[in-house]
Specification:
This protein starts with 7 loop residues before the first helix and ends with a helix. It has an eight-stranded mixed sheet with strand order 1-2-4-3-5-6-7-8, sandwiched between helices. The protein is globular and about 45 Å long. The protein is of the alpha/beta class and about 300 residues long. It has a single domain, classed as 3-Layer(aba) Sandwich (Rossmann fold), CATH 3.40.50.1820. The protein has nine helices and eight strands. The longest helix is centred in the C-terminal third of the chain and has 17 residues.
Length: about 300
Amino acid sequence: MSERGPSLRAIAWRRPVRWLLAPIFRAGRSVALRRRALLRVAMVARLPIAPFTRTAADTLRGVPVEWISSTHQPARRVVLYLHGGAYLFGAARIYRAVNARLAEWAQARVVAVDYRLAPEHPFPAAPADALAAYRGLLERGIAAADIVLAGDSAGGGLALACALQVREAGLPMPAGIVLFSPWVDLSLGGETIVSRAASELILDPQMLREAAAAYLAGRPAQTALASPLFADLRGLPPLLVQVTDTELLYDDARRLAERAGAAGVEVEYKVWRGLWHVWQVFAGKVPEADAALREAADFIVRQTRSP
């Protein structure tokens, strides 16, 4: 764990973060309202996108995706990014500030997946879409050694679910996995779901319960592809796990790092102090967001072949 506390800019952003995002993650709100509110917040925050960034809509095996690349450099590396949103909301375009920086700093192309969302499309629709997108990359001639999976929150769990499916299907494994504050236990069994409630700026335990129920649609919460914390993690590629010490999902990240390490997986587990759930989204606004994304980009470069 880093001993350095949050920057002055991060401290200044705490109130706007709570004001902008906490209402979206409050229990009892309709999914439609949350989806509209999150898009509005993305517009209000005006998260800056790096210059020379190019975006393009596409599909991979029928799954809608958005490609993000830096126009001033060629790239062989590909980052398959799975967004968060409790499996209920979120969209690839909301993460352009994150993915543009990963594209530039990792000298990569990022393909952000608009997987199907619950409750209209409950589990296992999202993992099926993630695997289809990965297969689509392979079918386009992109080598697995050049692919890194990445995701935040629910998207972090989905990135792991994708890797588990790749392993079980006998496909070539990606070079690595990057996880930002991953949600990997839909049973909400982590102790910090309770103990970090006072310090959590965004997430609400009851909302997470509602989201898990909508996504699982009656399936057990410890189903491996829904809650990868309970999966057999042997044979997975190296992981980078980033989390902050103040959030509800701290124990999800901690337990995942421990179990993956015990299964023989190479794990880089990084705890940042005094921030909030998926602070990386505030790239260009908060220095810790840019620093975390640079750390992720360095990991991506190390795990893949040279461009």
